[in-house]
Structure formats: C-alpha cells, structure tokens
Amino acid sequence: NLFWMAACYLRSLFTAKAGHRMIRDLRVALFNHVQRLSHQFFARRQTGAIVSRMVNDIAQAQNFVGAALTNVWMDSVLLLVLFIVLLNLHAMLTLIALALMPIFLFSIKTLGSRIRRASREVQQRVEVISGGLQEKIAGVTIVKGFTREPEELERFASQSDKLYNRVLRSVHYSAINEMLVGFVVLTAPGLVLWYGSRQILQGQLTVGELTQFLLYLTMFYGPIQRLSDLNVLLSNSLAAIERIFEYFDMQPQVIEKPNAQRLRRVVGTIEFDKITFGYERGVPVLQQIDLTIEPGETVAFVGASGSGKSTLANLVPRFYDPDEGVVRLDGHDLRDIRLADLRAVIGIVNQETILFSGTIQENLLLAKPNAAPSELKEALIAANAWEFVSTLPEGLWTEISERGSNLSGGQKQRLAIARAFLKNPRMLILDEATSALDSKSEHQIQDALSRLLKERSSIVIAHRLSTVMNADKIVVMERGKIIEIGPHQALLKRGGAYAQLYQEQFFHLTP
Ligand SMILES: Nc1ncnc2c1ncn2[C@@H]1O[C@H](COP(=O)(O)OP(=O)(O)OP(=O)(O)O)[C@@H](O)[C@H]1O
Ligand SMILES: [Mg+2]
Predict the structure, then answer these.
(1) Are 36 and 247 in contact (CB under 8 A)?
(2) Residue-level pLDDT at 508
(3) What's the pLDDT tens digit per position in 320-339?
(4) Are 261 and 332 in contact (CB under 8 A)?
(5) CATH class as words, domain 2-249
(6) How far is the CA of 268 from the centre of ligand 2 (A)?
(7) How far are the Cα atoms of 45, 77, 330, 409, 458 from residue 272, in angstroms, in the given order?
(8) pLDDT tens digits for 384-414?
(9) Which of 4, 148, 232, 349 has its CA at a distance of 20 to 30 angstroms from the CA of residue 326?
(10) What's the pLDDT at 37?
(11) Looking at the chain, which residues constitute the CATH 3.40.50.300 domain(s)?
(12) What are the pocket residues of ligand 1 if the criterion is a CB atom closer than 6 Å to any ligand atom?
C-alpha cells in the first residue's frame, strides 16, 4: 500500500512536471515571438491587452495541464478494463447500462464547442478590462486631474458586468454538462436494477451476480464523470490556446533576410530614394521623399505637427519599411543588412524619454552593457547630467520609478542623451521634445546635444531655434512631402515656407 501511495505521488509529480514544463516553454516562446513582432503590432494594441494574453490565457491553458493530464490516460485504461469485465459478467446488462451513453457523448461534443466559444469570449473580456486598466492606472494623473474617477469607476463596473455575464454563460454550459452526465450516472444503474430484478424473478440471474455487476458498474462512472469534467476544462483551455496561437500566427512586418549582410565599417550616408509610406493602405503619410544625408551631416526637419517627420525618422532603424522606394545606408538597401547590425549603429533620443524601473546605472547600461563606471561618468558629464546625478544621495544607484516618474523632464532627457553618448553611434536620430524647459536646463541640453551631434550623421527633428539654425541642411516638410531644402540663410533669403515658419514660430516663441 505504501508502494501504491508512492507510485501515485510520483505519477502526479512527473506528469504535472512535464505539463508545467510545456507551459513554461510556451510562455517563453510566446514572449520571444511577441518581442519580435513589428511596431505596427504594438501601435495597434493596448499594452494591457497584450499582457493579458501572455498572462491570463497562458494561465488558462495551464489549468488544463495541471489538473487534467494526470488522469486522462489512467482513466481511459480503467474504463476499457471495466468495460471488458462488465461484458464478461453479463452482455445484456452491459448494453442496458451503456444505453444512455449517447447522451454523454452528445454532451461532450456539442457542449464542448459551446464552452469553448463562451470561454473565448470570457478571455476577450478579460483582455478588454486589462487593456483599459493598464491605461487608466498609467494615466492616473489625468484621471485625477479631470476628476474622472466616478466615470472611470462606472466604466470599469460596466466592463466587469460584461465579463460577469460571459462567465455566467460559460458556467451555464458547464452546469448543463454536469446535469446530463449526472442524469446518465444516476439513471443507468436504475435501468440495470430494473432489468436485473426481472431476470432474477425469471430465474435467469442470481442476486449475487446482479450485486457484483452493479459494483463494477459504479466503478465505471467515476472515470466517466472525471472525463466529462475534463471536457469542460479542455474546452476552456483550448479557447485560450487558440488565442495564444493567434499571436504565434502573426508575422513581423519587418523581417531580416536570411542572407542579410553584416555591416562592417559604417561611413554614414543615409539615402532616401523615392520613399512612399503609409500606416494604413491608401493613406500615404510620406510621398516621394528624395533626400541624402552625407556622413557627419546634421539635417534638421521642421514642419507642422503631423507632417511626417517622426515617421520618416522611423524608417532608418527599420521600425517600418517603406511601401515604395529604398532607404540606403552607405549604398546598401537597409533590407539587405542584418537588423541588429543596423540598429547597433543608430542612436535614438526620442520625443518622450523611456526609462525603465531600476537604477540610473541599469538604465544607462542598456546602451552598452559592458561599460566601465568611468565611461558612465564620462557619458553623464558629456550629457550635462553628471551635475544632478552626483548630487542624488544614491548617485548612479538611485532607483528610477516606472517611466522615470521620479525625475524631471529635463533630467530624463539628459539621461537619454547620456545613453546616446554611451552607445556612441555613427548615426543619430533626435526627435526633440517640444516641452519647454527653464533656460538653464534648455541651455544644458542644447550644449550636450551639440556635442552629441558632432561628426555623426544626424536626423534632428527640431523645435529649438539653435539646432535648426546650426544644421547643415534644413528640410521643411508639409503633408508628407519635402517642400524646401537648404541651409538656414539660403532658406531665409528664399522667403518661402521656412522663412514664414521662422518668423511665426521660432522668432516669437524662443526667448
Ligand atoms: N502608428 C501610427 N499609426 C497610424 N498613423 C500614424 C501612426 N503614427 C503616426 N501616424 C500618422 O502619420 C502622420 C504623421 O505623423 P508623424 O508622427 O510622422 O508626424 P510628425 O511630423 O512627427 O508630427 P509632430 O511634430 O507632432 O511630432 C500623422 O497624420 C499621424 O496621424
Ligand atoms: Mg513627431
């Protein structure tokens, strides 16, 4: 008996281990896949919704593995053995006992697919809730600032109601399932008893034989019930697994060719050759862009909001590929270059600085994992960030909260610049933040930027007068097209769009 207990324990342990191992591998594979999907995927979905699929649906799939895989084989074998035993005991009684089996099979088949559908909808609702929740928690400042708490509560409650209704529907189906199986399990022995007693009265069966038959029959129903529960569980998990595989079926838009070249020495000529691009089909955001950025040149992009400046910059690290035309680096089509190599030579300082929770040091090391402490210091000094970092009580080991919310805007920007210094890339993309800073920070950042831009081919989406004026070339964009190109003085003399922009925007707004 002790042996049997140990066997039982080991069986559960090993099957569970195998199952959970499978789920663990699935989880990691999913993360790996999602990480490789293109910008488009992330731009179109809520962060919380993606997270929900990677956490909740995986957990749902795991349910099945955890609870079910242990029993299914044992039970199937047990059923088969019992069936043979029963058949040997009394064929007619066995037939009667199994007369209601079609109900069981029916319930497995039709209810299974309904439960699956209902469960899909439940997971869908969970995803909607997670998406909204993540946004509203990340943006709690806005919620509070506009005193939207009551409306948000109402919205959340109504979404929870929808989820509740979906859950109820799924529960409804599993209850029907349970009822049908219960009916089979309770009624069949009755039928057997009824037929058996008639046989006994006619002298064709003994009481002992009937009792024995009934005894085995009862053993038959345990596994049947478990298999039907399993059916519910399986249907739920299949719904989750389907949803997980929807992600696996998505392919990244930007893919590396199998024979992509290594990038050896980079000179830094960036060439846009008749580029047309749109996020949606038929809505071009960039049209017929022709432009060459020479090695070491700083090219400033100006133009109205929405004219396509950031979009054009995003083509260089291949966050998107153009619909028509070619972007080249030193004469190579970007699509022929290994992605990692390409991105290794581009530094990006974005419109909004993204910092992760962790120490300042950890955030800097993203740019160069093996940087020595002295290099970190140099980069911070070059970015005019050392001054404030060194006065923090914990210095480089100061913990940054999520999105860097415990730092000021100017401090975050300077950390981002320090990161770019550390990476020391051949090419730089600078999408300047429009946020106004006090004149000291403004000056410090300006100073750091001019150092950073030196001798790198740079795309600068500029809102600062000095950056624009000092650029080698200024590109004026309007509705996805380049309408003027040239150095500051020449464009001013022309008296066109730039001259007007300069008068309106830079001249009046900059102190
Ligand atoms: N991920 C996206 N999906 C769909 N459309 C987008 C996406 N990003 C930008 N757009 C659209 O593309 C157009 C160009 O946007 P882009 O961000 O390039 O403008 P911008 O010139 O950088 O403006 P700003 O000066 O305000 O930063 C806009 O009309 C915008 O609505
Ligand atoms: Mg922009």
Answers:
(1) no
(2) 62
(3) 999 999 999 999 999 999 99
(4) yes
(5) mainly alpha
(6) 23
(7) 29, 67, 11, 33, 14
(8) 888 888 888 888 888 888 887 788 888 888 8
(9) 349
(10) 92
(11) 255-345+428-433+456-511
(12) 43, 279, 285, 305-311
